[in-house]
Amino acid sequence: MTITGRDKRLEYARLKGVFMKREDIREWLVGPVCAVGTPFKEDFSPDYDTYRYNLRWMIEHGMKTGDGALLVAAGGGEHPSLNVEERKRYMAIAVEEADGRVPVISSIQHADIRIIIELAQYAESIGLDAAQLGPTYYYGNTAADYFRLFSTVAQEADVTLMAYYLTGIAARVPISTLEDIADIPTVGAIKWSAMDAPKFRRPLERLSKKVAIVNNGGDLAISHMNGSRAFTTQISNFWPEHATQLWRLMQAGDYVGLNAMTSGFNLEWREWVVKVGAETASEGAFIKAAMEAVGLGGGPPRPPSVRPSAGLLQEIEDLFRKYEVPKAS
């Protein structure tokens, strides 16, 4: 009898006693989806020990099934600067450390479809709960290219796919294509954003009946009212309790309280992130600086990106004092 990738995932589930079923994804892919920082040593080599520690700390401070998910080795984890073997290692460590306590998702994006398939098959083999897939690099995708990408990967691997609908491709990929992608059997979620509020809101209710919707850049209250039950964040890297509280307000339908919270710390955090982005482009630059500000290990981003300037590092220290962001313990 041939042992399939699906069989391997089921065997993993049997051994661990848990399995995030694709058909139940709208129940388990909820709350803050943390773009996990990827620690490096000062010589830019992988720091796997610190990564393990950070994952354990996040789980101990509230990242668990029903209250979030870990998105590892993705954009926030500087995946464009990682080679394939490093990406696989960071994926595997996350699955080991989560041990079924919290869903683990990882990026499988790449310019080369062969590597995308390799990463998808690897993600399936280690029991990753889902794999994030966006358009291939450089050339971008037409609507037909975007659909072919998902249908091709779905034929080669049984891992659950989260379609990354980047704002930049919205002009070329209509919502109808996204709905067709949502009908592909292995697609379980869409990471969604749109530049204008009506376009952000209108498709959510329809799509959320098919797949889990992860809000990647829109009003949290509006997205929740229209069917989204998850949202991306970097804040859980250094203050998991804050992101969990946002989720609690969403669950309670307390949109006044939700807007008050996002108009406070979240707004000033985003303003600081924009300042860092004017100095250096890597998401890891601001995520890991914030982690280090509370006492966690992060390390530098890989060149050509650099750590934020001394002035911006002082600003984040001041911001954290203002909002009483706790030190890591």
Describe the overall structure.
- This protein is α/β, with parallel strands linked by helices and 329 residues long.
- The chain has a single domain (5-238), classed as TIM Barrel.
- It is 48% helix and 11% strand.
- The chain is built from 14 helices and eight strands.
- The chain has an eight-stranded parallel barrel, surrounded by five helices.
- Helix 9 (220-225) links the parallel strand 7 and strand 8.
- Helix 10 (240-252) runs antiparallel to helix 11 (255-262).
- The protein is globular.
- The termini are far apart.
Unreliable parts: 1-6, 12-17
- Number of DSSP helices? 14
Structural category? alpha/beta
Distance between the termini: 50 Å
Order of helices and strands: HHEHEHEHEHEHEHEHEHHHHH
The tally of strands reads: 8
CATH fold topology: TIM Barrel
Task: Going across the biggest sheet, name each strand in turn.
Answer: 1-2-3-4-5-6-7-8
CATH architecture term: Alpha-Beta Barrel
Largest sheet: 8 strands, parallel, barrel
**Share in β-strands:** 5-15%
Mean pLDDT: 91
**Rg, Cα atoms, Å:** 19 Å
Principal-axes shape call: globular
Tell me the name of the CATH homologous superfamily.
Aldolase class I
What is the helical fraction, as a range of percent? 40-55%
Determine the oligomeric state from the structure: single chain
Number of separate domains: 1
CATH class category label: Alpha Beta
